[in-house]
Write a structure and sequence with these properties.
Blueprint lengths: L1 E8 L8 E6 L2 E6 L6 E6 L5 E2 L2 E6 L18 H11 L5 H17 L2 E9 L6 H13 L4 E7 L10 H11 L3 E2 L9 H18 L2 E6 L9 H11 L6 E5 L8 H14 L2 E3 L2 H7 L15 H6 L23 H11 L5 H10 L2 H7 L14 E4 L4 H7 L3 E6 L2 E5 L5 E2 L8 E2 L1 H4 L8
Parallel strand pairs: 1-4, 6-7, 7-8, 8-9, 9-10, 10-11, 11-12
Antiparallel strand pairs: 1-2, 2-3, 5-13, 13-14, 14-15, 16-17
Helix pairs in contact: 2-3, 5-6, 6-7, 10-11
The structure holds fe (ii) ion.
Length: about 425
């Protein structure tokens, strides 16, 4: 007797006609024609059933603050940081908490099961950390939230940032962050990486740094991060977020750099929506895309997860917690249009992000958490193409969100009367 059965699912690997049985919050069976009874059942009707979306890079302390105190006019990263600096002193713990909780509701409705959020610690009262630690506690039953102590104004450039970062870690923030390209010099950036990695090593924590988020072809912080990862034995526990300068680096240097990143086991987290918007702002034509070298990093064996970074905040005024928007943009900017590449982009917002975040018992396998999403799409490529509806979101074997299938009635003479996006279009070629 199961608590929940999902009938006739298509799995992300293309296997069709699968039933999924859940018991006590765990996946108990994945096979064709399950006959056991269940308290509740869902007819997937051949739709894609996927592990939850995972967002490995977000800023939950800033989300949904768009317009307060003003809009980013230049559209640059630096004006965004300045604008955030104006908002920080005037916002309260309660306001950050309320915005973050609203965002978590949205995230759950969009099938996100885990988020890694940076929290700015360049604020002596640590309002963001206070608010997000409470959010982490409250959302724990339905959303895994990891928090990164992020010294937005530079751990060396801001006189109290280092002390605040250690205080935030003492309070329970999970991961050590950094922003070496925002320090006063390349040398200070390198020093900040050494310092922060030593703190992580001493405390047994992971590292996730904003790294080389610029168009500067000579930015070299990822090299230092890979070096410190090796030196301190942090292999597999360090992520480099953004890495946009790699887009502009000399090809010979990159041919040396990528193997160093792979050797150190450093993960990469590009943020396609934000960086296609922020990078290249100082260029005339042609304008650089600014996304890091995703296929090349992937082909070197580096784990890559796509992050959403921002939703309606000082850096980005759009977004709706849709990791399929992120995958859609990532594959366009990276010229990843082959069917294998598009399928990989789906993994970049699901399994690969879960792997680099160290999530346990993630994925559609017997014994794992019964966490998954039913999408109004037949396969992963169609899910990205349609940014498909999340028909149902299941967490620990319970349905926590449902969306009505999108069916549009059209009123044209001698034409079909309804359009349902996932059945109207030609079927995608086989996933297999
Ligand atoms: Fe970020």
């Amino acid at each position: 007797m199961f608590d929940l059965i999902v009938k006739n699912a298509t799995l992300p690997d293309g296997t069709r006609g699968i039933d999924i049985g859940c018991k006590n919050g765990v996946i108990a069976a994945i096979e064709q024609n399950l006959t056991a009874e269940a308290s509740q059942s869902i007819e997937a009707d051949g739709h894609l059933v996927s592990p939850p979306f995972v967002d490995p890079h977000f800023h939950m302390d800033a989300t949904l603050s768009l317009g307060t105190p003003r809009i980013n006019v230049s559209g640059t990263l630096l004006e965004g940081i300045a604008l955030w600096g104006e908002l920080k002193p005037v916002q309260s713990v309660e306001q950050i908490f309320e915005r973050a909780m609203r965002y978590c509701d949205l995230a759950v409705s969009m099938g996100i099961g885990a988020i890694r959020s940076h929290v700015d610690v360049c604020d002596d009262s640590l309002k963001g950390a206070q608010a997000l630690l409470e959010v982490r506690k409250q959302v724990a039953p339905y959303l895994d939230l990891q928090l990164v102590a992020f010294p937005q104004d530079g751990v060396l450039r801001d006189p109290t940032a280092l002390n605040n970062l250690e205080r935030a870690l003492d309070m329970g923030v999970d991961i050590v962050g950094g922003i070496p390209h925002f320090e006063r010099s390349m040398a200070d950036g390198a020093t900040s990486i050494r310092l922060l990695c030593e703190i992580a090593a001493a405390r047994g924590l992971r590292v996730d740094m904003h790294c080389d988020e610029s168009d500067d072809p000579h930015s070299r912080h990822i090299e230092t991060l890979a070096y410190e990862t090796q030196r301190l034995g942090l292999n597999g526990r360090v992520a480099a977020s953004h890495l946009t300068s790699m887009h502009s680096m000399d090809n010979y240097y990159v041919s040396k750099l990528i193997p160093l990143i792979a050797e150190a086991g450093v993960h990469a987290i590009p943020n396609p929506l934000i960086n296609i918007m922020l990078q290249g702002r100082h260029d005339s034509y042609p304008k650089r895309r600014g996304q890091t070298r995703v296929p090349e990093l992937r082909d070197a064996g580096i784990t890559i997860g796509f992050g959403s970074d921002c939703v309606m905040d000082p850096w980005y005024s759009l977004g709706k917690a849709d990791m399929l928007d992120v995958a859609f943009m990532g594959l366009h900017v990276g010229h990843m249009s082959s069917r294998a590449d598009m399928r990989w982009c789906y993994e970049a917002v699901t399994a690969n992000s879960a792997k680099l975040m160290g999530l346990e018992k993630y994925g559609l396998e017997v014994g794992n958490h019964a966490n998954f999403v039913i999408l109004q799409a037949k396969d992963t490529i169609e899910a990205i193409r349609l940014r498909a509806n999340r028909l149902a979101v299941v967490r620990h074997g319970a349905i926590i969100a449902k969306t009505t299938p999108q069916i549009t009635t059209i009123n044209l003479p001698d034409r079909p009367s309804t359009v349902q996006s996932d059945t109207y279009a030609p079927r995608s070629p086989s996933e297999r």
